[in-house]
Amino acid sequence: MNIEANAPQVTGDDTSLLLVDDDKPFVTRLARAMEARGFVVDTAESVAEAVAKAKAHPPAYAVVDMRLGDGNGLDVIAAIREKRADARAVILTGYGNIATAVTAVKLGAIDYLSKPADADDVFAALTNSGEQRAAPPENPMSADRVRWEHIQRVFEMCDRNVSETARRLNMHRRTLQRILAKRAPR
User: Fold this and answer.
1) Which range is least confidently modeled, 6-10, 18-22, 127-131, 172-176?
2) Does the pLDDT of residue 124 top 90, yes or no?
3) What is the CA radius of gyration of the chain?
4) Domains in the chain, CATH or no CATH each
5) How far apart, in Å, are the Cα atoms of 11 and each of 50, 123, 172?
C-alpha cells in the first residue's frame, strides 16, 4: 500500500472515516494512507467497538471488514446507517460472494471490495459518485464458482442456518459444512 505525497484528496466538510478490521497491521497501513488523503481516521477491531463508536460519533465514511472476531461487519453498516443516513460505507472482505454483497448494499453499503484492496481502490470506492459503471469481468465465473454463489445465497436466505440450508439444497449437512469451510473457487 503506497502512501504518496500527491495522492488524491477527499473534499467536503466532514471527512471522518471509521476503519473496522481485526487485522491490526492492515488497518494501521490503511489508516495512514487514508490520513494522507485527507480523512480524519478512527479505527475499531471488533463489531462491539465499531458499533459503540458509530453510535457516539457517526462517521461520514466507513470501511468495514465482513468477518470480525465477534460477529458480522454488516451489523456495523446497519448501526452507521441508523445514525447517519448519508454515510458512505464500503464492505471489505476476503470471503466475497454475491449473497453478502447484495445484503451489504441493501443495508446501505455503497460498494463491496475483495481483499487484497489497496488504498487507491478504497479511496475510489468511498468517493465514487456512482456515475461510473464497473467494467464487465474479463473472465466469467467458473461452474464451481456459480455453484458456490448459489449455495451462499441460499445460506444467507436461511439466516446462515446450516441445517435449513442443507434441507433446502437437498444436501447432507456435513457435506454443506465442508463446502462452507472452504474458500470460494475462482
Assistant:
1) 6-10
2) no
3) 17
4) 16-127 (3.40.50.2300), 143-181 (1.10.10.60)
5) 24, 12, 53
Task: Kindly report the pTM of this predicted structure.
Answer: 0.67
- DSSP for the chain? ----TT-----SS--EEEEE-S-HHHHHHHHHHHHHTT-EEEEESSHHHHHHHHHHS--SEEEEESEETTEEHHHHHHHHHHH-TT-EEEEEESS--HHHHHHHHHTTEEEEEESS--HHHHHHHHH--S-SPPPPPSSPPPHHHHHHHHHHHHHHHTTT-HHHHHHHHT--HHHHHHHHHSPPP-
Which three cell numbers, joined as nine digits, stand for 99? 449473497
